[in-house]
Amino acid sequence: MTDEQRKVAEAAAGGPKVGKLIKFLNDIEDPEELEAKLQERDPATNHSLLLWATLTGKFVVVEWLLKKGKRAAFAFTNDKKEITVFEKWIEIRKEIEEREREKLLNPPEEEDDGDADEEKAPEPTAEQLVFEALSEYHEEWGDRALCIVKSIGELGVYQGFRDEQGTKAGLGQTLFPDGDMYTGEYRDNQRFGVGTYYWAQHGMIYCGQWNANRRHGIGRMVFADGSRYYGAWSDDKIHGVGRYTYPDGSSYNGCWVNGVKHGDGVYTFPDGSKHTGSFVDGEFVSGEWILGSSGTRFIGRFKNGAPLGKGVFVFKNREGGSFRQEGEYVNGTWRPGPLSTKGAVPKLELIVQRKRIAVGFTHECGALSAEDLVRCVNFAPFREWLETVEQNRAYFVNEIAVSSVRFSHTSRNVNELTLKVHAVDTSGRRLRGVDAIVLKAARTRLLLVLTDGKRTIAVVEQSVNAAAQDAEQLRLPAITTTAAGKFDGAFLQTVAPALRVNVGAATTMSLPLKLQSDCARGNAEQAVIAYVQHVHADTITTAQTRLDEQCGAGFTKLRAVRLEDVGTMSTDSVSIVAANYLHGLALEGKLPSATADPQRPPTPIPPTIEERPDIEPLLEAERAKNKAKDEDADE
To answer: Residue 137: is it exposed, middle or buried by C-beta count within 10 angstroms (0-12/13-18/19+)?
Structure first.
């Protein structure tokens, strides 16, 4: 486990000495004493216990404080006049709600015709009632009194730092009119940075990163039903890698897209059974089903939580070892094939173009098992490729062999396949060029954009071989997502120090494009995220030099090119569409002002040292001048 992973795990578990802290608070039996303890502030930082737990990622402490203390945990300064006004608002609202409820239960009697002409005085508004009830502040506030009362009723109470313009900036906390509360970091009057939000009516808690009032980055959410989620967020939705624990004890740990399970993951049932593999739109579609503690496993495809199509059951022997049974689920019924022991040559049959096709491994994959072969044929890009084959009538497939497999680093889930296909055309002649079909899982591409307000450039990859042929092949680089929801990869490891960029979930935006590579040679879905940062003009000028210094020699070079030129200089369809989309936003004036904080101007380049002038010619001239003077004096 790396240091970064250890820190994330420690933060998720509550950090060091959290158990002792909670035990100390639990031992306080008097509610008033506990409330007083929660409202104490650190004399050095003026932080409450809740704010300390928020900023240091002590999620367990945050949840305990809010479940026990609720509003007291926020340690609002109660001697402020704004709190008095807020309390009066709560009181008046309850009275108005009670009055309206009484009207519904006991409607007023209809008035006589004689009284109809008399004008009835309108009932006072809530803000007028609050204003009248706080007469002791009228003289102090003067003409601003009604505005102050109305502002607190509509916006709530804010206690914290403000900048010179009066904008919320830095650490602060807010008590909202509906009773919700927030403590943490602000920027430009918005929740921005790290903070904790408490939904008072539902008892829900979010502690983590924010961007423009939206949950964005890494955070932990406690839902009203007791469910909990810890992981990545994007634009107020669960997005990235995270773990969701349900009230019944079951859990899902894996990839999410816009609040839905999508990608590699593991769903664990209360009895210990597991679904391990690929999820699409919230549904488990392929992988391994482990049946409780029996050790029995099924590898294959699934639909609506049930096995579907061809698969393999693996059973444990009492004496040790295992044996397998290949077969097929048809209409929910298992049709078994022959039993085999470990070491048998794996082979499967598929119905392709209305005939049975043998699928197996080449000799390069001789060490792989039947379970691995099932994983390969259930690999989503493989199924998509088969669909294109079914729709094609120009050639016919006779045999499919898997020549290489790339598995996930953390599981046996397939990430990439290379196929050798025996196919013939309509005349029966063997089709060439289908001996290296590469199928890849969906991946993420990054469009990294830097702008100084006048010039806008994108950082892309360039193929060295293509450049040698004087035909540039530019493409957007691919990046990976770590278990902690952070972006990584060779491209970021090179660019980050060179251009001082910080690419992460909180500093990027997803482009609303659904892109795919060429179906003839593969069918990997491409997601594109954009990173836009305002930089100093010198950074734009020196970007290519910095990239060259950081890259050195290699198979791939990095280029800093104008954003509008990517579409004309690249032949990669994904790169062209994404770059043109962002350039179109720029032409319409809709390019995001930034997804990351503006960089400060770079350190000025020190001036070159002037060479010391050669003093000998000056001395020679001085000697000649003195000699001439002496000669004139002698005459």
So the answer is: middle
Structure tokens at 85: 């006004």
pLDDT digits over 5-37, tens only?
A: 344 344 444 444 788 888 888 888 888 888 888
The candidate with the shortest Cα–Cα distance to 540, out of 482, 615, 467, 458, is 458
Cα gap 254→244, rounded to integer Å: 9
Whole-number Å distance between alpha carbons of 229 and 87: 33
What DSSP line would sit under 33-51, residue for residue?
HHHHHHT-B-TTT--BHHH
**Which residue would you say has higher pLDDT here, 502 or 136?**
502
How would residue 339 be classed by pLDDT, with cut points 50, 70 and 90? Answer: low
Q: Is the pTM of this model over 0.70?
A: no
Check if the beta carbon of residue 576 is closer than 8 Å to that of residue 566: yes
What is the secondary structure of 77-96 as a DSSP string?
-TTSHHHHHHHHHHHHHHHH
Inter-residue contact 531 to 503 (CB < 8 Å): yes
* Whether the Cβ atoms of residue 257 and residue 234 lie closer than 8 Å to each other: no
Q: Is 606 exposed, middle or buried (0-12, 13-18, 19+ CB in 10 A)?
A: exposed
Strands (E), 387-546: 395-407, 414-425, 437-440, 443-451, 456-463, 474-475, 478-481, 487-488, 509-510, 515-516, 525-534
Alpha carbon distance 550, 537 (integer Å): 20
Q: How confident is the model at residue 442 (pLDDT cuts 50, 70, 90)?
A: low
- Per residue in 354-375, pLDDT (tens digit) is 787 878 888 777 668 777 887 8
Burial call 14-37: b when 16+ CB within 10 Å, e when fewer? bbeebeebbeebeeeeeeeebbee
| Burial class of residue 502, CB neighbours in 10 A (0-12, 13-18, 19+) | middle
- Other CB atoms within a 10 A radius of the CB of residue 206 amount to 22
Determine the 3-state secondary structure of 604 from DSSP. Answer: coil
Euclidean distance between CA atoms 171 and 162, whole angstroms = 9
Task: Return the minimum-mean-pLDDT range out of 21-25, 405-409, 432-436.
Answer: 432-436
If you ran DSSP here, which 8-state letter would residue 111 be given? P
Highest mean predicted confidence (pLDDT) among 276-285, 337-346, 624-633: 276-285
Size (the chain), residues: 635
**Tens of pLDDT, residues 514-527:** 555 444 444 456 77
Buried b / exposed e over 41-57, threshold 16 CB at 10 Å, is: eeeeeebbbbbebbbeb
Pairing of strands 214-222, 228-234: antiparallel
Residue listed under structure tokens 């059951």 = 313
- How remote is the C-alpha of 251 from its chain's centroid? 20
DSSP-assigned letters across all residues of 121-187? PPPPPHHHHHHHHTGGGHHHHGGGHHHHHHHHHHH-EEEEEE-TTS-EEEEEEEE-TTS-EEEEEEE
Check residue 404 and give its pLDDT: 85
